[in-house]
Every structure is written in structure tokens, then in C-alpha cells.
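Q: Please design a sequence for this.
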């Protein structure tokens, strides 16, 4: 039977620490809790790493976080050879915050690229220092200089980023909200999480389950480092932190 973990990061992506109860430990040592601040690998964003402290003070590094049988079951994967907690015991959690914050900045920047380049997204992957977003883009005017400049305009605009839940019916009535060509947001659960940017979502809104910064200004200096040709019309835009490097 699939277990259910309350995903605290979905309501507050800035939680760095929390306490939880151990619901189960899998045969392979994966720890399932009643609640967590650890984001599980999904939608192109890697899962969190960090530490879990047992009631007796044992500190265990968490090397990865993944989903189990369902998206609601979040599995904390301890480092190789680490101890596992007792079912029913309480543990203290802390995520690797500098890493997660960089992932939040990168992930939010990916949303901005999809606003600047309004074309179907065929793939995306977020990493701490280099993210990519693949688009079917027939227009060659979206150069790295142009996209970088517009990105920084949106960063400097310091627009609010917030979530809103809508129903399956509302999403069906607004098909333009979905920008992924191949990935459909999960429907059938009755509600879908929309990530909105700008006052009243004037900049953007799209279904997403990831973690984002609260204001675009927190992304900081960022640019398109490279554009790679992946197909006749498919281009891979690579995001890097820092100012544009000439040449
Ligand atoms: Zn997102």
C-alpha cells in the first residue's frame, strides 16, 4: 500500500528544517516520513540532499530524495551504509539549503525562459550551476544575447512568484497554460498547482510541482550561456548564473 507524505515544500519552499515521524523504512533502506521538506526528483528538478537526525542523536546524510509508488510517497535515501531510523520514531530534518536555493533560482529562471520564448517545451533539466530548456523554436531571432537581456529585465522587475490551485475543469478550459509538448500535468486528482509570476499572474502561469523563489529578483544575475541545435527546429537553451560572457 502506498504511503502518503505531507509535502511541506509545496506550501513553503523556504522551509530549511522540520521534524517528522517515520512511517516506514523500505527493504533498501529508504525512509518514508509523515511530512517532509525534502523535494523529490520530479519535473526536471533534482531531489534534495541534507541530513536526518534520529532521536538518539545519530546524524545520517540523505543522498537523494525520490518518489515511490505514487507521487505522494516521498522516499529519503540515506548515504550508502548509513543507519536507518526506527518506524514510529521522530527525526529532525535539514535540507542542504544553499544547493536547494540555487535550484529554486534556476528553476524559476526556466519559467522565465518559457515566457520569453513562447514555443512548445520538449524537455527541461534543472541543476545547481547549469540548467537547460529544450524548445521547438522555428524563429532564429531568439539569440542568447536577446534572451539574456529579457531574462535580466524580468529579474530586475522583481516580480512576485506564487502558487494557486485550480480544478481539472479550469485547466481543461485554458489549454494555453500547458507549455510542455510531451508532459501533461497530472489530472484526475481534482486539483492542479499553478505557478504564477507577476501581480495577478500577468507575467506567467503554468502547472508545476517544483520549488521556486518568492520573487524573480532573488534569481540574481543569470544568462543564456549557449544555444545548442538539437533538431531541425529544436534548440537547447543553457542557463548559467553570472553576467553574460562576451564572445
Ligand atoms: Zn516550476
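A: Design:
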Amino acid at each position: 500500500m502506498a504511503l502518503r507524505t505531507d509535502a511541506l515544500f509545496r506550501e513553503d519552499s523556504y522551509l530549511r528544517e522540520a521534524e517528522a515521524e517515520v512511517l516506514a523504512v523500505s527493504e533498501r533502506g529508504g525512509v518514508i516520513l509523515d511530512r517532509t521538506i525534502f523535494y523529490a526528483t520530479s519535473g526536471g528538478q533534482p531531489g534534495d540532499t541534507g541530513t536526518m537526525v534520529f532521536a538518539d542523536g545519530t546524524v545520517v546524510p540523505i543522498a537523494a530524495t525520490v518518489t515511490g509508488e505514487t507521487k505522494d510517497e516521498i522516499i529519503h535515501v540515506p548515504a550508502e551504509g548509513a543507519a536507518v531510523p526506527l518506524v514510529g520514531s521522530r527525526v529532525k530534518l535539514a535540507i542542504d539549503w544553499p544547493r536547494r536555493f540555487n535550484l529554486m533560482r534556476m528553476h524559476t529562471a526556466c519559467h522565465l525562459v518559457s515566457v520569453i520564448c513562447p514555443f512548445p517545451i520538449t524537455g527541461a533539466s534543472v541543476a545547481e550551476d547549469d540548467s537547460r530548456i529544450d524548445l521547438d523554436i522555428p524563429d532564429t531571432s531568439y539569440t542568447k544575447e536577446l534572451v539574456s537581456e529579457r531574462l535580466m529585465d524580468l529579474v530586475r522587475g522583481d516580480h512576485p512568484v506564487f502558487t494557486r490551485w485550480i480544478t481539472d475543469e479550469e485547466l481543461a478550459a485554458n489549454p494555453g497554460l500547458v507549455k510542455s509538448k510531451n508532459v501533461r500535468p497530472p489530472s484526475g486528482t481534482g486539483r492542479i498547482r499553478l505557478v504564477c509570476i507577476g501581480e495577478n499572474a500577468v507575467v506567467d502561469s503554468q502547472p508545476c510541482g517544483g520549488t521556486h523563489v518568492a520573487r524573480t529578483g532573488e534569481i540574481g544575475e543569470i544568462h543564456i550561456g549557449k544555444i545548442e541545435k538539437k533538431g531541425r527546429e529544436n534548440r537547447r537553451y543553457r542557463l548559467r548564473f553570472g553576467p553574460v560572457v562576451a564572445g
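Q: Thanks. Anything notable?
A: The pocket of zinc ion is lined by residues 107, 111, 195, 208, 210, 212 (CB under 6 Å). The mean pLDDT is 93.
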